[in-house]
# Entry
Amino acid sequence: MSKIEKVKYRQQYSKKSSRRRYNLDVNQKGFLCSCNNREKDCIREAYNILNKYADILWPANIPQSTSSQNEIEDDLQKELQELKNDKNEKRFQVVESGAKNFLFIKTTVEDPVKLAESILNDLSENKSQGTKFLLRLVPIEVTCKAYMKDIEKSFETLCVKYFSEKPRTFSIVFNHRNNNSVSRDDVIESLANMVSKMGQENNLEHKVDLKNAELSIVIEIIRGFACLGVAPNFIKLKKYNLLAFCSSEPESDVAEKVVEVSGSEENK
# Structure
């Protein structure tokens, strides 16, 4: 192989490598996105809407003109060092979820729930359609291996965060895709018991509400991973369906179920 051919080969290999997809892994946070076979269009729309509202919630910090030159240089040096240490991290990065028509977009933003809720509230208030190919945008606060002990451990922090300060009404949303090894009933019973125990320890009475829960505990099992999040007003906000606010048509069917503590279920 000539020197020129070697250079071309390296360039082509580099381009292919740069296009590689990341995979779902443990300890990630982000958004589970559903689409209808138009994956590339879904990704584009997801990036657009997430960046738009993230810029509103967390505007970039621009150095003030009153700052000293040394302070500005220190800030710039700090930002450069952070970029150097985490050069591969993007604010939003699509990863393979392991299920058809479902994408996972991991994020570095501090609060994916706040971002998703902001988007849904705005669409609800304005009765507008924010996307065409991106159907549903569900915030995920933590991912873990799809084993009972890992799910329980990951939910501990969320349980303290959402159920330790005041009484809440809640529901449980459970889905599994390409995985039949995780017992739906076991997960429901375990997480419901954790919520109940947290309430007892803090003298709070948490109640199940299938029609208008303040909080919905979302568990999405995809292959070997579990995605967990607690979504405010999940039922009221059309189960975070971005197309549902400006249409009289029924919501897209993604086989989601709202589950009672006892294990009985109510289809959409």
